[in-house]
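lol ok so funny story. i was supposed to be doing the assay writeup but got distracted and ended up predicting the structure for this chain instead. priorities right. anyway since i did it might as well share w the group, maybe its usefull for someone
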Amino acid sequence: MKIHLILIGKTTDKRIEALVAEYAARVTHYIPFSMEVIPELKNTKSLTAEQQKEREGELIRKALREGDHVVLLDEGGKEFRSVEFADFLQQRQHSVPRRLVFIVGGPYGFAPAIYALAAEKVSLSRMTFSHQMVRLFFVEQIYRAMTILRGEPYHHE
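and the output, tada:
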């Protein structure tokens, strides 16, 4: 199994970008991991939120492959403690044949068509974070989960 993270829009803060890259590199020591950034839409002032979600949804669909197990990072998704998220990933390692794809949507969330493609939804918190911070928190949590599964001392309970 491979983990693939799809993100809408690039990170503009170089410090956050560097930290995301650091944790992404750490993750690859445990499992194949990749990230794909879908550029933000241009001229969105003339679009409604629904139109923007639909256009982003079209770009997301193009990034998906046959057989992907799609998990949306969504405020309405299931919340996990870090140990529980590690178990979630371990279970998917045994049941997902190809790619486990996590998607961080745009500022308005996801189009209905993307929700329909999703097998699951995960929430990082009931709090709202910037999309840039979500990337960092989520990639760090994947790394943390991998160290938990290996019994390494990074995570403390």
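The two ends are 28 Å apart (CA to CA). The beta strands are 2-8, 33-38, 69-79, 99-104, 120-123.
back to the writeup now i swear
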